[in-house]
Fold these 3 entries.
Entry 1:
Amino acid sequence: MKQLLDRDTWIEIFQSIRKNKLRTFLTMIGVFIGIYIYIGLSGAAKGLDNGFEKEFESVARNSMFVWAQTTSMPYSGFKTGRQIQLKLRDVEVLKKQNPEIMALAPRNVRGIFGADPGLITRGLKSGNYSVFGDFPDFTKIATKRIYDGGRFINDDDIEQERKVCVIGERTQKELFDEDEEPIGGYIVIDGVSFQVVGVHKFAGGGPFDNDSDIFIPFTTYRKLYNTGDDVSWFTIAAYDDADVVKVEENIKATLRRIHRVDPKDERAIGSFNLGEAFNRIFGFSRGLTFLSLIVGVATILAGVIGIGNILLISVKERTKELGVRRAMGATPSEVRNQIIIESLVLTMLAGIIGIILGAATLKMIDSLTQGGDFPYTNPTVPIPLVVGSLLLMIVLGILIGLIPAQRAVSIRPIDALREE
């Protein structure tokens, strides 16, 4: 420690660096590139994680969507091409036979899947918007951010078949005046008056949602559009510890049994497993982080070995100088520490430059991706990983410095003084 704080030690180190500027620079490139790659790839992986978490922050991680299609195989007396229709009674069977289900919300809609959108009017203003029939359980799967003073559909709305609705923020702007309070106001949905009880901020509750969506109670929807117990699709969330792929398979198998579909008919029941998509994305991100670690460490190691080789050459060139120092009373530990400190300085200097430039690159990428459609946000590297990489460079710098340091210590003063 005393030698590390000694002014003469640092003067000697920087004199050695200045004497061989090009060689020192080329030697440091390996370590610099290694840490730069590590910071860049790790940050990119984190940005991807953050982007998808933000994009689907309001949706349960283990969620999926299941809907009915047409059969592709004859079964139990039914011909191929039969249209399957999901029913409200399917809910209890699904929950009973699939205990991994955390929440299940039947949904109906007008405005997508080929159905005409609802005609919404308010005074002289009108527009066509998607109208959803929903249960309160939907918010357990896809959180709806309701502006202050409002609420979403509740159990009383379902039981009493209330004519209430939650409108989107774009719907509010198009049907209400700027200074007008929408909560408590009325809109007309396909000829029926509904009271507005909430305004939702669009946050992406699934692949079918929009910032102008209108939500009404499921029971009110079926009376309005005479859909009976028909269900367009189920939005389902499994428990966090459940295997979402297995849950999806079990749910589809249950629906095939309920609706008398061949167990091998994969086309009759359609689905989209958001949980599986999440797992793939985060698996890719973890793989990218691991790859950055392997590539970064390998490149850093190669760079550090290069520093060790250069220091061996430096020791050979300074044989006479080292001999004079030994003859004047320098101890072997002082000579050894001098070389190790020099190795550590070169390694740390290259590493710190790599970290700074890597962070600057991530900052630039973040600014370029702001406001884009690609889900990419705040590509940063956690501080523990940066500290870990610095500690790794310290350890490698010391270890690789031991080789030239031992070579310097092994030089006998009398032999060094004879060196020409």
Entry 2:
Amino acid sequence: MVHIPLPPELYPATCVIAFILGIFLGSFYNVCIYRVPMGMSVNNPRRSFCFRCGSMVKWFDNLPIVSYFVLGGRCRQCGSKYSMRYMLIELLTGLMFVAIFMGTNPPQSGSLQVATFWYLAFASMLLIGTFTDIDHYIIPDQLTIGGTIAALVAAVAISVCDPWPLLASAGPFPALRLSWGKEWYDVVEALLKSPFTLAAESGGIHWWEPLVNAVIGAAFGFFMLYGIGIIGKIVFRKEAMGFGDVKLFAMIGATLGIAGCLVTLALAALFGIVDGVLIRQVRKIIAARHAGPAILEAGAGLPVSAEPAAEFAEAQAAVGRLVEINRNTPRSRPVHYLPFGPSIALAAVIEVIFQQRIYQWLWGTIL
């Protein structure tokens, strides 16, 4: 067993290192989010470039977070403005790295879990998948299928270095083997509580058990969401689940196991409901604002919109074009929701950060 000592006095510095590593990797993830769905190489061109003038970004203009404020969010060469989202993704990645590090390595633990490195990679793929899903309604196979294969490899590699906690430790092995011969309810309890009872068992683990757990978890996650998609299609008579989400759950199952899939699904469903409510409210607010000037203009004796005449005319013309496009477009059911992938990713990251507390509360409540 390999232990990486982490003295308490070095804990704050390690958190800072995790944040710095996160923001620099977040800069690279921005490249992946933009290029991978477009079929572009993440290495060619090697440096970032301005989408307006095509000029390469100098290294000192590509410092995470800092460069955005130094340049005022504009290209140094042509002055065109670029989105704040790039900086926010860098910041989000840094904060996510710190949260995962602290969640998997409490200050009193005194050591760094080797599994933390895979959890960081796992969360990174979820973050990239989230924003590609938001932008293009797709989650690339490089993330889902590649991530599932990587999780299977990690399950074996990490168990050699640090068998506690195991990746996919909520699977049937070795809890089933260590509790075999006991009463059936003891076996069921061991299966449910395996992430927290294995450390107390003296039987140890076999090298193949984490791999079997990961394979079973991946298969469970895949077919669980695939089955939900089939049921949803029958009930709602339309596609209810993207296949990218199904493959994403295979990667989640390979990393977090059967119990992790169930917890992630429950949290993702809750987040999806919240997303739906928020989107409906935002759409109502936008509709009310768009309706305001037209009502004022049509009302007898009411003042006309306070906007300048030129801007108001331009807005009216834009609305007219949208109406004309809508009339000439074949009717289809409007998309009134965010893709499910971001909710799944957020739930899985929360599961990684708080997995021990979640399981302890869940099993303590059920059993």
Entry 3:
Amino acid sequence: MSLDRLLAHLGRMQQAASEIGRFLRGVDQGAFFGAVEKQRAVGMNLTLIGEAAARIADEYPEFVVDHPELPWHVMQDFRNRITQGYFDIELTALWDIAQKSVPELLLQLDSVRHWRAEGE
């Protein structure tokens, strides 16, 4: 497997996480709970993150082992929860992930991608 493909997966994860931040900029929890389009946009981007994480785990298992700081199983599990039971997803959980976990994930992805770009 090529490094370019790995970087593409990481880039997709980073793009989806960034989009969540843009979609929720200036939106409070009450507005989020009342805006189905925001909920679906966040859910779709979390699904994309989880799908990219699953592909990395399948195609680059050594990368996953080398980077345990990234929540690989959490991302994949939440993707599965969304795709298998979207209408049962608790909005509070979706909001909390978008507000707390996604910004942290962006920092981790920046760090990993920078580290890889340096060739270390």
